[in-house]
Amino acid sequence: MYVATRDKGAASRRHALECLVNRGAAADFEAPESGETACTLLAKLNRPDVICELAVVSKINANRESTLLAFTPLIAAAENNGEDAVRIILEHLNASIHLENSRGDTAILAACRNGSVGALKVLLEHAAQKSSDDIISVDDRGKILLNNSYGVHPIIAASMGASKTSKNAFEGVLDVLKRNEKIFAFDPNCEAFNGQTALTTLFVDNQPQSGDDHAINELRKKAKVLLRFSADASHENAFGKTSLDVVVENDDFVGADILLTDLHVQPNRESTKTGYTALMLCSEFASLKCCETLCRKGADVAQLSVMLECDAMDIAHHRKHAEVKQCLVRFGAVPIADDE
């Protein structure tokens, strides 16, 4: 079916498609190895004219999900920034813009994750019409919510795909979301149900190697972009964790350095919910590289948690994390002898 759509002549293409359909070919047939259908391939290639021709000769379920890739035609078009294909699939095939696939993806989230600025504009333009065919959730201000069933909002999805999008595309997605905030909810500090914000997601999902200067600089630029859109680098989530706390738990010393040096996060902040400081979390999770980074950037090794009435050395000793204890001592902490 897809091979027939590659014919350059509209008349001969239409004839070939009709012949295939009359012989039992289905537009929704999924190739077993690739998981593609003719429609998803055409959506990826941004061929709205041929999608329309295919829809004339064969019934297409625009909301059908690929069993292998979980693609719908609309998600396929959104991921590949196929603006015209997105418009045709929405307007002529009546695809549901808010449909969530089995992986928790929607077309809008897919566009954000892939830096598909043009496709995102078309999707939001259509979503703003508040079609009665789609179930729409609104916040307490009456603004349309675009998050999925996991609480992932578009700005968080943009951070998920930041490693494969340029800084300009990442910024472009955020700009489109910001420009539409009169209709759609836009909170740069919103949280998914796991507590992740756009900023924490940026660091967790995009951890460059320590020697990859290009990737580190890209991460730094994108973090600064989030701050320009009012993300709070010191935001404490529902679990009492900040972005610094999250990168420390993963011993992501590159992320910690960016937060401390470029985003000017305070290294000695104590969580209002857990009582932990970032340095105490280093002791808890044996995050040696982050411990060294924090100490070099001014973390107080003797800081006593008001809530927990202990310090980083106490926790490192209790957890038997000898290397972290040694690190703390090098930066002035009072040593605690190991238990015999």
How would the blueprint of this fold be written?
Blueprint: H1 2-5, H2 10-22, H3 38-44, H4 48-57, H5 73-79, H6 83-91, H7 107-113, H8 117-127, E1 137-138, E2 144-145, H9 154-160, H10 167-179, H11 198-204, H12 213-228, H13 243-249, H14 253-261, H15 278-285, H16 288-296, H17 312-318, H18 322-330
Antiparallel strand pairs: 1-2
Helix pairs in contact: 2-4, 3-5, 4-6, 5-6, 5-7, 6-8, 7-8, 7-9, 9-10, 9-11, 10-12, 11-12, 11-13, 13-14, 13-15, 14-16, 15-16, 15-17, 16-18, 17-18
Describe the structure.
This protein has 340 residues and is mostly helical. It has three domains: 95 residues, Ankyrin repeat-containing domain (Serine Threonine Protein Phosphatase 5, Tetratricopeptide repeat, Alpha Horseshoe), CATH 1.25.40.20; 104 residues, Alpha Horseshoe (Serine Threonine Protein Phosphatase 5, Tetratricopeptide repeat); 108 residues, Alpha Horseshoe (Serine Threonine Protein Phosphatase 5, Tetratricopeptide repeat). It is built from 18 helices and two strands. A hairpin with a 5-residue loop joins strand 1 and strand 2. Helix 15 runs parallel beside helix 17. The longest helix is centred in the middle third of the chain and has 16 residues.
